[in-house]
Design goal:
Chain A has 567 residues and is of the alpha+beta class. Chain A contains 16 helices and 21 strands. In chain A, β14 and β15 form a beta hairpin. Chain A is globular, with a radius of gyration of 25 Å. The two termini of chain A are 17 Å apart. With 336 residues, chain B is an all-alpha fold. Chain B has two domains: 76 residues, no CATH class; 218 residues, MetI-like (MetI-like fold, Orthogonal Bundle), CATH 1.10.3720.10. Chain B is built from twelve helices and no strands. Chain B is globular. Chain C has one domain: MetI-like fold. The two termini of chain C are 20 Å apart. Classes of the chains: A alpha+beta (567), B mainly alpha (336), C mainly alpha (306). Chains in contact: A-B, A-C, B-C. At the A-C interface, α8, α10, α12, β17 and α13 of A face α6 of C.
Amino acid sequence: MKRTKLLLAGTVAALAFANMAHAERGTDGDLKILFWQAVSTLNPYLSGGTKEVYSSSMVIEPLARYDATGALVAWLVTEIPTVANGGVTADMKSITWKLKPGVKWSDGSAFTAEDVVFTWEYCTAPDGGCAQKAQYEGITKVEAVDAQTVKVTFSEPKYYPYSAFVGAQSPILQKAQFKDCVGAKAPGCTAANFGPIGTGPFVVKEFKPNDVITFTANPNFRDAAKPAFASVTLKGGGDAASAARAVLETGEFDYAWNMQVEPEVLATMLKAGKGKIETAFGTQVERIQINWTNPDPKLGDKRSTVEGGKHPALSDPAVRKALSMAIDRDVIDEVGYGEAGKPTCNIVPAPDIYISSTNDWCLKQDIKGANKLLDDAGWKKGSDGIRAKDGVKLSFLYQTSTNSVRQGTQALVKDMWSQIGVASELRNVSASVFFGGDPASPDTFQKFYADVEMYTNNFDGTDPEKYLAEWLCDKIPSPANGWQGQNIPRYCNPAYDKIVNELAKTGDLKKRAELAIKANDMLTAEGAHIPLIHRGQPSAISATLIGVDMNAWDSELWNVADWSRKK
Amino acid sequence: MFTYTIRRLMFAVPTLLVISFVIFALLDLAPNDPLGELPLTIPPEVREQIRAAMGLDQPFLIRYLKWLQQFFVNEPLNIFEQITGLTVGTGERMRVLSWATRSPVVDLIVQRLPQTLWVVGMAYVFGILIAIPVGVISAYRQYSVFDQVGTFITMVGYSVPTFFTGVLLIVIFSSWLQWFPSIYDTNLVVDSWANFVEQMRQMFLPVLVLSLYNASQITRFVRASMLDNLSMDYVRTARAKGVREKTVLLVHVLRNSLIPVVTVIALGVPTIFSGAIITEQIFRVNGLGQLLITAVQGADIPLVQTLTFIFAVLIVLFNLIADVLYGILDPRIRYD
Amino acid sequence: MTDATMTTATIAKVEVETPTKLFWRKFRAHKGGVAGLIVFIAILFVVYVGPFIHTIDPNKIDIRAKNQGPSWNHPFGTDNLGHDMLAQVMAGGQISLAVGMTAMLLALLLGTLVGVMSGYFRRLDGPLMRVTDLFLALPLLPLLLVIIMLFRDTLRAAFGPETGIFILIVFVIGVTSWMHTARIVRGDVLAVKSQEFIVAAKSSGMREYRIVLRHILPNVLSSIMVSATLGIASAIITESALSFLGLGFPSDFPTWGRLLFDGANFLQITPSRVIWPGLAISLTVLSVNYVGDAVRDALDPRTVTH
């Protein structure tokens, strides 16, 4: 009874002050966030991991960032520079940012163009090992025209100039704090790396690496009414399922990031009614890469290289297509991803203007069609039920990283492929080895000493140009480049190279979208890979937390200043 | 015994040096990579530069010698400076830096020690305190109900892994009954009765899981060893002489039964330092075990090397202590 | 055996009974041991013969029948991919039991060898114990990564993927878990060595290896037996740890440890996923423990009857 009254009173109050619901800073107590992969530093330039980028985004901010729809929003600047408003020169070789007046660092000093210039110097200094250097690629000069104006000059026309100082990967550091930490001295500045001074809604109070971070509200934040929370506790460690449990079942935490948990397990937890799962879809696609070269161990050093020759079975387009046709993506989605995934046939699954439907034939499983395709191509079933042609068996080594959802998918795909007479041997490799790229290890995804392999990749921001360039002929990994290429399937098609080169020289957004779709369709149609699932980023959110706007294009905590507690 | 101890201690130095070299070589050879956890969107050429900034482009031997210097010279000097307030030389020297956090490894370890000692250390102490009486009674009343039940519980306790018991306890006590928190708060400062109660509450589940596991193992050895000794001639002699049963059991038999128990405990104490990896993960205690496993998975070689080396020092030390204790427990054991 | 009994001089009937018969008679007298043996044989029977009766392929996926409770078709229910749990538990048992037993035996053999050698021969004590220290200090995970990187492909080529990984895992677990046994056995040997009957045997001119086999080993047997029973449990669990780190068997070869690990999150949905593999591990360890107790009693010259 009493509670109902209180609730009523609360509702009335909320109605009365609808526009100033959280008119005061720091009135909502402590916000508790859980990152099961613990945060190791708060300087995203030194780490580059998603967890570091996200957690630091509460403190340090970029000039502009992406909102939940993927649109650019002016953050610390007055507007997004474009050719139309004169912010970008017509030759696309420079961009000028105008800083918002009156923005202050959390220590009270003024935020100026010098800080922006310094951030560029910091990340591009030699021996610094800056993890976000790619964001500053092609920049020849960053200069402070005056205290409120920054001009960035590119060496060549840059048709998509919103990379430096845009998005959570490229926030502005305070010059006063980091000026003695440039280059080789960067790692030594522990205090600064663990407690960067920022312009964001929160200030680091204490940082325990790989364990817990405590933040308090920034007294100098530009919006006097925000943030609603007085402090934030960001705890790390454990696994995804128990993190989900802490929000959804025990209610100990308000928000948990990256809930890669089997859908039915989440569904059981959701029954407790203490929270919900929200998913943001970015550009992540879980795919099976197909090895176009021969991974036979007998080839020695030439294994999985262009010199080693074509793959005996997978070089046949019919086999590649049949493998894709045999897969029931709906089942994989239902078992492993649930709300956090959608079946897809594209490698560029978003934003909307880049989505293609040309290859949507793959969305429907077609065992009969696949069998026919293989029969017609001369792959005949042997006594063991496995197809073969000229002594080459359709038996593949299928590797991926260790992760219960991936092992589930492996089992399902193996079962589906067995229905078209294709055998597979499963292997899973510890993620730190698989993605580690150690040239001495045979198990890295770049070496690809297997016939097919499965993992997720995506692109930063909303522009796929750099991403599509990964399938260029000269990006093929080989011993010569220390296996450091990104063209994992060893796909090479001059026609494809031409499309991507044209994309790099095109400024018109509509034209760019057309070219990107053409490139995307070509990759799937030719069977460079088998796209499976367009993966979202699911997070668990407490029922008492409001204001969360899930964002896959920037940090999930991008609008943490607007979060508040349900009264 | 004294000269033996001194000789062993002297011999420990080259042993530890060899161990440190083997560990370093092993870590270097391992195929996991510090860049494995970075998003794939970071291009190869940037990865190369990050690697260089970590010093990974230098030859193996140089990196090993650097670590030796940082660990054996720079870190002790640093501790010396902190204690005395004096400055040796310029006071500027390279400390052992973790690759993942880019902060001094020793600071990380110091930060993690309290919760590990609280949880893992306490669990070990409880384990021993439970194991010895249970083992003694089980052996003395062999095949009694107490022994049968004790055997059953200890074997189940040892054979059901902590990754399962941990989840089970969380589901029962945190989700369902809501008696204990499922997440350990490392920021909790014990300065009042209420905080102390809170600390006890959050320690309860992880300590329970670990104590059961430790007690199970030690009980088995106490029981077996007691059984061996109970059938010895000297026990019969003592009883025949009219020595009180309690004295026979607790003074003569227990003392002689302690050799394998001392060995097991001496092997177990250093593992307190390496933490309880799975239990720490499940309850998010974030002690040394969690530090070690994240470091191993992230191939953070300086951190793994330092942690493992300190672990090695403890192993060598406690095995020496065990050897000395053998001589005290059984004066007939001589090493010289 | 006879020498040992001579020195303790408690049994007179030894001459008429062969050691095997004596062992068997004493073993049967141990009720727990007999029960343990029966349970263990039953487990072996279910695991190896069961698949011929319950003929569902453990890797058969039936997505429509996922997360089911126990039923006539699936007595243990199904998992989230629609695998039949009974078939999985039986298939997993074949691997887990084989890995647990072989790895334990390897560790026991190595541990006992090193322990006895260093406890008995003073000259070997220093070097062998320092090697033990080294192995104790080695970080397990990087060691595994290195061993697997170096040997997996060779073994896979020589023995095929399944046997190759089996040999590798048994070797890895055996090689990284003998140190406790070695330290414990050594401690016991040190204590036994200084007792009168050993001194007596030595002065009577008995060969060293005979002293070790006849006098030392029987007297340190109880610790070895405890190590053995605990060793099986830890080998089965270590195997599961390897699996979920991506270092064990391929994911389509179920093992008890991994079934338990994968099932832990499904505790509230399908409890049978964790109950059965957990029970199987515990029962195996318990039964081996009782058998071990009985073997120890039967081999111990001092225990006549209870």
